[in-house]
Specification:
This protein is mostly helical. It is built from nine helices and no strands. Helix 3 (42-56) runs parallel beside helix 7 (151-190), helix 4 (64-95) packs across helix 5 and helix 7 packs across helix 8.
Length: 229
């Protein structure tokens, strides 16, 4: 294991590799999966699935492992075109020694940047552009081209936009469940059963209705289609 890490470090940093460089390399390798997930639709999908669980009133069902696994596979489904493009335009040329590592990073980021630029809200993008103090020129249509936006502006704008979009979808999801809670609470109050918790009665009704309307298919379909708009 030590030899493998040393070989990787030597490849990246050269022969004069030090302990601090190995620590930096291990840190990068540890954070890389999280960084890649932030550049995909994983954030929106996982937040929406968490909203569904909370709207149903079940805090631990489905478990976190199931939600994260489902979110990962849905992310793979949504991002497959981007991954294929990265494989063909960046990974294959690198393995064939046609491009350098720096070119690989630039080519690999290209499809991710295009995806993020399509999904990011204009208001969030302009907010981070103004926050950074950059003065970016617009094209003849009045839009800032993708290649002119630095990563340090595009990535946080994309993540913020994803969270905002997920919260909007979560708000829509909560509405029918709140209606069911209100109906159950009003019925119990009219029957004089004020000591009986409404959540205890409304939970099985929410689960039953959610299953009857094939709620998971509706939620998953809506989330996936939100990336195609």
């Amino acid at each position: 294991m030590t030899g493998t890490i040393g070989d990787i470090a030597t490849t990246l940093f050269g022969e004069n590799v030090s302990t601090i460089n190995i620590v930096i390399l291990l840190t990068i390798l540890t954070l890389l999966p999280s960084i890649l997930l932030m550049l995909t639709g994983f954030t929106r999908i996982l937040i929406v699935l968490s909203f569904v669980r909370n709207a149903l009133g079940m805090q631990q069902t489905p478990p976190n492992q199931v939600l994260i696994g489902l979110a990962l596979f849905l992310t793979l489904f949504v991002m497959m075109g981007v991954f294929d493009q990265v494989y063909e335009e960046a990974y294959l040329p690198l393995t064939n020694n046609e491009i350098s590592q720096d070119d690989f990073v630039d080519r690999a980021m290209g499809p991710f940047r295009e995806f993020m630029h399509r999904q990011v809200a204009t208001t969030d993008l302009n907010f981070f552009i103004n926050l950074s103090g950059l003065e970016l020129e617009t094209n003849e249509l009045g839009f800032i081209p993708n290649e002119a936006i630095p990563d340090r502006v595009l990535i946080p704008a994309f993540i913020t936009s994803e969270i905002k979009q997920a919260f909007w979808i979560g708000f829509v999801i909560f509405i029918p469940f709140i209606v069911i809670d209100m109906i159950v609470a009003s019925t119990l109050m009219a029957m004089g059963m004020m000591m009986l918790p409404p959540a205890m009665i409304s939970l099985p009704f929410k689960v039953l209705i959610f299953v009857l309307v094939d709620g998971w298919q509706l939620i998953i379909g809506g989330v996936v289609e939100s990336f195609l708009r």
